[in-house]
Fold this protein.
Amino acid sequence: MELLLSEPIQALVAINVLLTLSLLFPFATGVWSLGMPGFMAVGAYASSWLTVTHHWPIGLAIAAGAVAGAFVTLPFAMLTLRVREIYLAIATLAAAELILLFFSHYKGTGAVMGLTGMPYLDVHWIVGLAVAAVALASLLYNSRFGKALVAVGSDPVVASCHGLNVPALQFTALAIGGALAGLAGGCFAHYYSFISPANFGFHRTTDILMFLVVGGLTPLGAVLGATVLSVIPQVVTSLEKWAPALYSVTVLLMAIYMPAGMLPKNRITGWLLPRKGRRHGAPVAAPLNSAKKCPLPVQSAPAVLSHVAKGNDHA
């Protein structure tokens, strides 16, 4: 129990929660962005450069790193207009590798040797930021804005026909994800006081995906998945070297038996709706015959044409 409450575990879980939330919003809109570790690196290096070189306050530097993470996503957001699904995933993954390649060769940030000397950020601030991010993400996800994001992810064509600005919503979701990734990077850099391109490699992408698969595509699911898969290898130290195999088996089992994750949205609402129905009386479904009395929301083409024909006869 003491290990679970230790500062390193708290910091690890909080940073992974922020990073997992960064992928939640793009995925909700159907944007398969696998470049979040690259945006995390941008936030980490930007905030570290500001605190080490220009002696900015830690809080202001981390906020600037989050803004930098969101700003870097904008060029890649344009890809959503041209490519979809797996092609977008490959493009964003390549973008992340280009970002890491830049930091690996740029001597101003230490190149492959990394950057050190960042002032220490207390773990309580990191946990507080993670809690605030989860609360804000939950509010957004359950608001009209969040429902619009989910509608775009379900079927962008239908969402567009209902008046939703699909590109703008996808841009916004990707920018939110970039900001959260940049925030995670700033917290990572100032807690460990050392960063290098190796900290933001492809393993980060696989970790985030597994967190979401295990937890589910909801803010609380992201918290659950990130917490469980971050704590288990640390608690059972004998399994640490087997962590990749453990993750792989876990993902396979989840994909087979719980494809929506441990905490999907329909399960959360399922816990609440039965109680509401027992307390106030659950609504009773209308009989099938009553469907004949309900008018269609949109007139059919023959009906519209018949009205036009009648109008011409009266004329």
User: Anything to note?
Assistant: Residues 267-309 have pLDDT under 50 and may be disordered.
